[in-house]
């Protein structure tokens, strides 16, 4: 699969695992039409104003979790949003309810899309039952699939930073039913330390003894949370204090972590 890194990163990410939805193609085509001015209707004889995008779209930013894109229009300081299919344009301002910020221009909007403020999600993080390791004061959140080789490699590399960070791993079944069985086995393990060894050290999950009364509610919450933040593949890593995130594995992990401090 072609590597894909989120635009907010300053280092390359590789071997990202995730779907390639048709909606992505539609959004890409729509953005192309808008940038070329082809999606804008001509002014009518009735005197309706022409599309504000006719001045030219200089830059666009994907809004995670939805089909809209923020647009910077040439010659305007206003904030515009373009629908996923390029048909509708909204002018105004936005509010980042997770970050508690008013976003009045494109720069503020783009900065907001480049971070995920975990505190804005409220108490949901307390119900996700992650597997954690490390003694550091700062959290690094990793969404992973137990059958994803890149996820395993990233978690292995993160062990070198246990003295500075607490690594919080949220396993989700991206790669099918086999992944789902492993995720539930780890979540339902009777021995928390043994479950941690599976996630941190790559120990076989098949040897875990599970609690018979365990359900998968926390796993469902993880999946819902992943959708809420716009996750489309794994590994997906968040530097909690700064909100910076990356899809994939950074080439220089130390530099990526330090850039968020």
UniProtKB/TrEMBL annotation:
<dbReference type="InterPro" id="IPR009056">
    <property type="entry name" value="Cyt_c-like_dom"/>
</dbReference>
<keyword id="KW-0408">Iron</keyword>
<feature type="domain" description="Cytochrome c">
    <location>
        <begin position="134"/>
        <end position="261"/>
    </location>
</feature>
<dbReference type="InterPro" id="IPR051470">
    <property type="entry name" value="Thiol:disulfide_interchange"/>
</dbReference>
<dbReference type="GO" id="GO:0020037">
    <property type="term" value="F:heme binding"/>
</dbReference>
<keyword id="KW-0349">Heme</keyword>
<dbReference type="GO" id="GO:0046872">
    <property type="term" value="F:metal ion binding"/>
</dbReference>
<dbReference type="InterPro" id="IPR036249">
    <property type="entry name" value="Thioredoxin-like_sf"/>
</dbReference>
<keyword id="KW-0479">Metal-binding</keyword>
<dbReference type="GO" id="GO:0009055">
    <property type="term" value="F:electron transfer activity"/>
</dbReference>
<protein>
    <submittedName>
        <fullName>Thiol:disulfide interchange protein DsbC</fullName>
    </submittedName>
</protein>
